[in-house]
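Blinded run. Sample ID left blank on purpose so nobody reads anything into the name before looking at the predicted structure. Input follows.
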Amino acid sequence: MRKFSKILIANRGEIALRIVRAARAMNLSTVAIYSAEEKNALHVQQSDEAHSLGSGSLSETYLNIEKIINIAKRSNADAVHPGYGFLSENPGFAQACLENDIVFVGPSVEVLRQTGNKTTAKAIARRAGVRVPKAVSFNPSDFDVKLLAGFRFPLLIKAAHGGGGKGMQLVYNEAEIVEKAQSAGRLALQYFGNGEIFIEEYIENARHIEVQVLADNYGKMIHLFERDCTVQRKHQKIIEEAPATCISDKTRTKIQEAALSICREVGYTNAGTVEFLVNEKEEFFFLEINPRIQVEHRVSELITGIDIAQWQLKIAAGNELKLSQDEIVVNGHAIEARLYAEDPENNFAPSAKPVASYHFPGKGVSVEHAISVNEQSGQFDPLLAKIIVWNNNRDKAVQDIHRALSETAVFGPETNLSYLLALTKHSDFQQYNLTTHYCNDKHEQLLGIINQRNHKMSHEQLLAAAVIMFFYDGKINNESPFNQNWRIWHKVEIELGGQFFSVDVEPFGEGFQIKNGALVLTIEDYRVENLFVRFLAGGINSMFYYYKENNARVDFSHKGKIYKTAFPRRLNYYEEENIENSVGAGFSNVVKSPLHGKIVSISIKQGQIINKGDVLLTIESMKSENAVRAAVNASVKSIAVSVGSQVTDQSPLVYLEEV
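Blinded prediction complete.
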């Protein structure tokens, strides 16, 4: 261990910004790395210096050890912080740092070798006397059904050398294993540089509890209590909270002791997390060790007042832990919600569209993000932001997180905001009645809540908002929305949700009145701010966040739902794309990409007859693989892409002919 003054951050996004903040607080200089696609990213702008990794895939950029080490040497960085994901658990990367006299901010190479391999980590847990689920590791290409002797379904397929839910697959029968193992192996290779996977027995109706640990290089080790990460969708954490008040004090103490025992067994140093599954009987099973900082570390910081990122740097520099276990106490309750770029109403399809505008809650809410407006970064991660609250107890924190999400708006990509709002309002979440299967079990209920909210929003309120924005001239706090074009535009045509409305607008007292058929609505008071419009109409107070793309289009956001409006007469002044892809009634001769991503497999050939529902190809986008299926029976005329092709939303994939 040695002191250092400049650190290279081998990561991107919000975790890179988090490390920048920690380094600045300790008067350390920072070096950012970036792919060519992210040259204007926030972590690039906020670091003291930045160096390009060039363009290309993850293996050519953020997973390229040689490039990163060369940049560290060229910039005279004497330490590297890997963040989470990417190379954070890669012993080869830590070894390369060691060989080049660069401090690796994390555990030793040997510890990474043991903890980074999930099967080896399970052996460590067994030696420490902690129960583990039954598991077996294998290479996807070498799978033999004999490996499953003695196992019971359902089973879970996981990457042996990574985490974060990437590639994780739940398997209910033997017929599914080969396809899902190949998918898991591809994603493991892409994100962690190693395609080895393993299968373990799935513990149903479990809670996911993890313990945050800090350990110095002199044998001192403490825990920062536990986090509850039970709320997950497809094994990807959505909401995390601390502490885990769902378990008894007796079980909590046992889990904390088990985490420290496992870390002592492996000789762990720096910050890390030990994860467990807890069943209905409060029996707990070791899941994995994450030898790095976690996405959800902030909730532990908020209840303990301890800066984990700073302690990572201090420990790496050879400082002793000056904290004793007795000094660390739990203060209140913290909850974090992850805002993802994905569409809940379209089977959670990833959305890689750039963010056009956003609004996050202010005082009392912590928001961590790395959003750069109008910048494209869809090939990396769907996480847009972490919204975090703290209060004296869980009930108050639950109210706070729902309110904070209600005050959030993101324009551009589809997001899971409406889903998070439905989830945090659901009685099971509020009453802490949760398991890792909760999102799957309550899927239809949660979508039903979203749809119910959508139907509750009246056209009248949206039309009133659209009229105000139609006349709004861009001045903040303007006294009247009516500018010099008032007499020209007294009749406003509005497109809303595919419907067209012709609205008469007339001044009325201090406000104005809109009329459309039987609708007569008086807007008594209104106010336009930089990001939102407020008004009183028909006795109802309404507030919408808005994004005005141009004078012809305005998007409104209300409780996670985006409502698109347009003014048809003004659209004539703007170029409109109108691409026809249909031949004949009801038949489309081109299959378009539903999202941005990379083609990882093609299941068809030219001339092949396909049936409705057949898988045509698979697109990898932001941590998940998405099958594109045939919408009709047809013949494959030609295939416009190949394996490895990068595609964008609405790119042509396959051309078809009627049969």
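Unblinding after everyone has recorded impressions. Residues 476-481, 575-585 have pLDDT under 50 and may be disordered.
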